[in-house]
Design brief:
Chain lengths: 354, 354
Amino acid sequence: MVRRAKKSADGTRKSTIREVAELAGVSTATVSRILAGNYPEAPVTRDRVMRAVKELDYVANVHARSLAGTPTTSVAIIINSVISPHYAHVAQGVQTQATAEGRLCLIGTTGGDAARELAMVQLMREQHAEAVILVGNVLADAEYQARMSQYAHSLAAAGSRLVLCGRPPLGPDVPAVVVGCDYTGGAFAATSHLISAGHERILCLGRRPGYTTADARHAGYRDALTAHGIAHDAQLEVEGTFEREEGYRMIKERLESGQRDFTAVFAFNDLIAAGARQALLEHHLGVPDDVSLVGFDDLPPALDLNLTTVQLPHQEMGRTAVRFALEHETQGGAPPHIVLDTHLVIRDSVSSPR
Amino acid sequence: MVRRAKKSADGTRKSTIREVAELAGVSTATVSRILAGNYPEAPVTRDRVMRAVKELDYVANVHARSLAGTPTTSVAIIINSVISPHYAHVAQGVQTQATAEGRLCLIGTTGGDAARELAMVQLMREQHAEAVILVGNVLADAEYQARMSQYAHSLAAAGSRLVLCGRPPLGPDVPAVVVGCDYTGGAFAATSHLISAGHERILCLGRRPGYTTADARHAGYRDALTAHGIAHDAQLEVEGTFEREEGYRMIKERLESGQRDFTAVFAFNDLIAAGARQALLEHHLGVPDDVSLVGFDDLPPALDLNLTTVQLPHQEMGRTAVRFALEHETQGGAPPHIVLDTHLVIRDSVSSPR
DNA sequence: AGCACTTGTTAAAACGTTTTAACTCTTCGA
DNA sequence: TCGAAGAGTTAAAACGTTTTAACAAGTGCT
């Protein structure tokens, strides 16, 4: 019996493999094989099938396909926000590599909300994403450890894989790939650079105890001071988040209260540096003539500000995350922990103190 | 007969609705209904089922579900690159709205390559995305018209919908939603602002005949000159793409060849403005003291440069695209064409000519 | 001619859901 | 006491692929 194509309400008519088979006068198995191209096939049949496919504008139904065997391969990335340069760059790396490896890229944003993160992870798990990449700054407390372990196991149970990008690793028994970056080393280099120029009173902006990325940078800052025999001064370590407005606020508040007790500023990211610079300028302090400034990230604002900063391999992190997530998939063994390098980019925002 | 859960190679064990049903001592139909919650259900049964679901950490298989009825709902966005601020903002809007409407967001990048765009559209079509949103600058020639029409029909045939975001509309018979922005009006306002300040020799940067976004801005520029009775001078209209380096190049080449024949610059986007500004500074021309500068987009660099610019509703465009794509889905009628407004943001990069 | 391959094709059984139609109890009104 | 209506549940039929196992038909070797 000939099965007729069903017309749906809106007049849409998706063609099925059956119709193609009928039109070509072969079985569905043959069509499937010819399209997959992994079986011996007679040129004549092949032609007939291809012609039918063209004619019907046939596209295989992914859902049916996934169900039957060939699982759809996609990689998911979950970030705070697409418009933050750092996340955008990592996402670009993930997207590029995913495409290169023949995978589709799903993207979800959380706005920094742990509940939405959880929901997203669930969603991606339902979608059977091959890997779920979580990126970003986070409070690394016990609650975090527990939540991530749960994600990792839950995903592993569904045949997927958790990747932490720029987040602290979990235990060795937890099945999660970790891709990090030597933040501490970068901060050490940045601070050392200022010290070499003769600075000793270096303000650091963006301290946020408990948050991994901030902590790592702070550690590098302290290490550099120690290495050069300079005592650290807690008064010079200002707390704030990683946003432009915060950089502005931190400097502004300090200058307005008359604390002009530093000759250089190390901002924990370029956005903070941009805000800080604006506040400095408003107080008639030039960069680098009056105050030296070093940032972190080397993202768009840096170039316009002529900012000496620490370059991070943002895109490379994304690419690496995908690469290892998929590679590791096939092998067994302990999940890898990769650490990428950073390097200082010297522009024109540092000079010697007067 | 009791079917046992299959163990896959890596020890993974996804639980099926069958197992849940067995554990709860009911049929799969009941489990499905209780989870969907759209049917009468006895509290006792409900409890048993929910307990079983919890115990097995059961998550329904999307593919099976889509195949059987409830189609998975996702929205796809295809852009040049995630790291370009404009695209990132639109993508953020799409992501936000998609999530708000309970949809997943797929993302693909093309790098500006038409072939990859085609491949992406195919891919999204296979994925049964409810809507495919194409955003960005494009050469609006006949080939474009043909390609887009093909996309639109192909997607419509698959029950999906094409959305053009910041791209020129196709014919009225082509099933594509168009979300645009009043680029011409914005450019008119920007140019008028310069003219009001007393400028008559206004350089415009980023001309690119045939490319829609550039053309629209150019039209606004010309209109403003005409409206104020100033004759346009083709010598003042410089060709270039929408990148920072190009802005730098355009000004640099001009100044190095001694053509210091303008008092103001209208850059077709903020990146161009950033590059232009750098070149101006290198030639010891201050902004706005020596040369006035207006940009377009109001994206991150603008704030740091204190740039007067035209604000575009980037995120709103993304949100609107999703909203109309999904809304229109249910109704019939001609596909909508929405045009959003722009407005001038005045900062400190314009002054009167000396 | 008989046998063992290879080549090309197919019918039918998965895959894991949702949904249709049918079935069994209760309950209630007449 | 009967019949109808409703509540709760289920067996079985989709959904559109891939894949397994089986089967023809052709080829070369003895």
